[in-house]
Structures
1.
Amino acid sequence: MSNHLFDAIRAAAPGNAPFIRINGGRIWTYDEALDLSGRIASAIGALGIRPGDRVAVQVEKSAQALILYLACLRCGAVYLPLNTAYTLAELDYFIGDAEPRLVVVSPAQREAVATIAKAHGAIVETLDADGTGSLLDLARDEPLDFVDASCSPDDLAAILYTSGTTGRSKGAMLTHGNLLSNATTLRDCWRVSSGDRLIHALPIFHTHGLFVATNVTLLAGASMFLLSKFDADEVVALMPQATMLMGVPTFYVRLLQSRRLDKQAVANMRLFVSGSAPLLAETHVEFEKRTGHAILERYGMTETNMNTSNPYDGARIAGTVGLPLPGVTVRVTDPATGAVLPPDETGMIEIKGPNVFKGYWRMPEKTAAEFTSDGFFISGDLGKIDTDGYVHIVGRSKDLVISGGYNIYPKEVEGEIDQLDGVVESAVIGVPHPDFGEGVTAIVVRKPNTVLDEGAILHALHDRLARYKQPKRIIFAEDLPRNAMGKVQKNVLRQKYADLYART
Ligand code: MCA
Ligand code: AMP
């Protein structure tokens, strides 16, 4: 019996060497982490979870939470991580759509989530930020000799929900083969080895923190400092003991605001990686000036894992996302005709390779619509490939805001605002924000004589939308600009409010 991804993780695990270092706390060796993953896998099996069943997990970041991910791989369950910022209303959708057999939440959430879970036929267990909880209680008495489920490259390892451009969020189905091939490629391209120590300050419910950071560390037998969240001072203080950092652009913007960041602080660091949102060229340039390190920018998506990366050796060019990864084909096509465009011409970025997902969970039509007839995934990102082969992202054809590395789907926010009494309509846009890259902003048209203000709208959204999706500003307007077809011209609004969050 072989388990495609976990066998590779096990083979790379350097026994008694450290895997997870909790800052100021305990060290988990590989042996300890793998032992506990076996016990949790056993406990999950005893709860009746079978290969292919979904296990939804909305828990704070901890070593045990990462070990739970490994446990799911080992028992062939499909791991479904959920942002801790999601409200109960959002959770209800994910649980209803994915139909997990087991939902793991923090003890404080148990009662509230149990009602939702029960309605969808799922059981609930708990895991707290300190690693305690009912799931770990069950795992404690399980034997160590867990037999891993057999999983082929095509079997599902995880479902990650991604903001949909039409309708609700879609579950991207990632296979063992997708995850193993991409992490192996990144490990090799970025020369990650057992001597590396990664500063892990990303959340573990998205591709970046879960697959890029964690799988690459595991497949290199390296170790990581697991931080509960990003804090610039804490990260700078750790650098002398670490060798790598992976982050979203907001990390680098905030690091540059720390006076402690200088050449001496980074003397032991080997690599700084950025992704999930565009890194401003000025951040790249300023970071290099201050530290001597050129940030390595790469480009990925939930559906595809990583597609391109600036080179480890060779020019890391500011404002580009680098070259297609080995085994991944990237092309740019004319959005109207589908014809492949020559270098330097801008069009739709399309991707093909072992990294590309299996499809959207229970949405065969949506899946088919996102692929070309020759099997390329249509990214929704607009870009070009220059004559040196570097990919440049110049915009998005999908209506999406990326704030601090989190994606926000404007339609979802507009839908919530439009439901409110006194609202005629709304348009949600992203405009430049000095910290988050883009700031979610709502332009709202009110009915005449309505006393609806910014505070009332934000209050109404509080229990409906995760905090990061809520507009940073709400602007009231008489009407929305429309083109001849009646479509709201968001580009006009983006231009009009471009300086809304400008540094003063
Ligand atoms: C927190 N807030 C945010 C965000 N994060 N608002 C907008 N956008 C955000 N990203 C809210 C908080 O709830 C808080 O609200 C207020 O903003 C200020 O919080 P602050 O303390 O500044 O935030 P933080 O806790 O420091 O978090 C900022 C962060 C964090 C460190 C940038 O958002 C983060 O870790 N982002 C990484 C996301 C990520 O991993 N993306 C990868 C997705 P209030 O105080 O009013 O309650 S994977 C992906 O995109 C693809 C596949 C790829 O290529 O990697
Ligand atoms: P997600 O929905 O989390 O999968 O986000 C994927 C999207 O993030 C991509 O389609 C891009 O629009 C964006 N993205 C990821 N990495 C980069 C990058 N390095 N530069 C610009 N955009 C990026």
2.
Amino acid sequence: MSKGSILLVGAGLSGAVIARALAEAGYLATVIDARPHVGGNCHTERDADTGVLVHVYGPHIFHTDDVQVWDYVNRFARFHPYRNRVKTTARGAVWSLPVNLHTINQFYGTTMRPDEARAFIADQADTTITEPRNFEEQALSMIGRDLYEAFFKGYTEKQWGCSPTELPASILKRLPLRFSYDDNYFFHRFQGMPEEGYTPMIAAILDHANIDVHLDTPFTPAMAARHDHLFWSGPLDGYFDYALGRLGYRTLDFERFTAMGDWQGCAVMNYGDADVPWTRITEHKFFAPWESHEGSVCYREYSRACDPGDIPYYPIRLVEEKALLAEYEALARGTEGVSFVGRLGTYRYLDMDVTIREAMDMATGFLSARG
Ligand code: UDP
């Protein structure tokens, strides 16, 4: 006999991981998603013409330090080793990211060794900023004005649609600064790509006798009444019908184009100049380097304010928006029978591994509270 019936809104990572844990514990889990596929914004799809595996909602590279999370995803997909190596085009040249010894030497026309570069950058950095209050202060205190203006200012203005002085410092803390030639974009021990993409992996997580998945199915409040508990991975403000106003999200527009051969020669090319309207171009065949394809599928990526009806991608979390967020968080805490999960449900800039970790913990907490 089932222990209860649970509704999960959203068939992305959060919904799938929680549904699986509850299903394995004997609950009946109904997962609904308004879109025609599982996987949320991690959705991948093979392009019919070229055979290239396309990251339909932009690039997703799996990386983590969390052994349990790494074991978890490996249960549901075969992972291939992958190193995210990002380049950026700025001021008429191509540079290595994240900012590393190569970038620094190339940028300043020097041949510094690690200690010399460390001392040099410390000299460039603004030492009057001891507690960076926003993205710009974080950058100035870390790498100084020259590198900030070349690689971060323009890109960030395009990506977030506001001044970097209005953004939290945490966004820049995502990126390393290296005094070596290591150009791995991430610090994490485990990094890889699922062989057939994220959608089959998430479908495998959802593949359990106690899980029912309904696609093309928008949420209606009447559905909640038929279940014992609701896990909501849609936008936090959306659950409350935007009653207190809208939290800011960025959405992305992708200009898709195809080519023969290799178009740019790498998976991700950022564009740091403010006068280039796109933020980056992704060439999807390079996300699956173990495959080979004659044709190529590329996305030119543009970021803009998310209007009603657009797909939200990035919670902006403007420094000045904190009060509204706190009000929604208080509403969420006071809403019985509903748990808010994931990037949209908690309005935080979460990576996939953290999303999975939080979903696992959320399910464990739920199960132990129910005895
Ligand atoms: N960023 C930047 N220039 C770059 C790459 C990143 O200014 O070439 C900033 C930008 O504000 C971005 C943030 O660093 O939003 C985090 O970058 P990341 O590559 O992690 O962004 P994501 O891939 O999640 O969009």
